[in-house]
Amino acid sequence: MIVDIDIGNTRAKWRLSAGDEIIECGVIDTQCESWSALAALRSHRPGRVRVSNVAGEAVAQRIRGIAAKAFGVDAEFALACESVGKVVSGYEEPERLGIDRWLAILAAWELFGKQCVVVDAGSALTFDFIDARAAHLGGYIVPGRQMMIDALFGGTSGVRVNSSQVLGTDHGQNTDSAVQNGCFAMTLALVDKIILEANEEQGSINMVLTGGDAELLLTQLPNTVVHKPDLVLDGLALALP
Predict the structure, then answer these.
(1) pTM for the structure as a whole
(2) Which of these is catalytic: 100, 120, 128, 234?
(3) What CA–CA distance (Å, rounded) separates 17 from 2?
(4) How far apart are CA 117 and CA 191, in angstroms?
């Protein structure tokens, strides 16, 4: 059995699998003190722990400790590199590409096998473009929806946002809805722009969407957009077979 872990800046997703069968899965707050849910998997005696980590060395050390103490194995950390299989990085310095983006790129090519776009709507909103030869063409990184809200909150003295506000793209009739809907509309507008440009150039687009805000965006996007919540976890098996 293998434990795969995708550690983001705010949350960590994990799953325990045996071959193609998912045995257990869950989500942990990245900055929480206890990772007991992960350690509890010791009863399954996993033989490997594969990790994607963008949350820094302190979190990496915690995972190494859990893997060694609970499972008796060394945690394997995926690293961005020049190429895996047919997929070639588009970065001038491949190792500087975020490992979550790299793994999502690998998984997207495995999914489509042709020109496509990867959108990760998490703390940051990222876009990565892959051509028909599996070459990564680079991408965009912009603040995610919540990061935009937090920036607005931190830069003004009078804006306070109710997180329970129902999201939409209508004009806000109060400060809560004006902020929430405005940030959502900005996020959606960039995704729509990518889809429109691809449709004009190619006639269609192969787009896969992942990240915490993916389900919100899907309500406003064409049903041809593929939703893969575990895209980074899928990429771990390709980077660390």
Answers:
(1) 0.91
(2) 100
(3) 5
(4) 10
Question: In total, how many domains does the chain have?
Answer: 2
Q: In this predicted model, what pLDDT tens digit does every residue of 184-204 receive, in sequence order? A: 898 999 999 999 988 888 778
**Measured CA angle at 236 (ends 139, 234), to 5 deg:** 80
120 in active site: no
Segments forming the whole domain that contains residue 148: 83-230
CA-closest candidate to residue 180, choices 142, 153, 212: 153
The first and second tokens of residue 12, run together, are 């960590």
| 239 in any annotated domain | no
Task: Indicate whether 114 and 22 sit together in one domain.
Answer: no
- Quick one: tokens of 32? 């929480």
Sheet-wide strand order for 207-210: 136-143, 124-130, 116-121, 207-210, 226-227
Structure confidence at residue 202 (pLDDT): 79
Spatial separation of the C-alpha atoms in residues 1 and 22, rounded to whole Å: 10
**Inter-residue contact 4 to 14 (CB < 8 Å):** yes
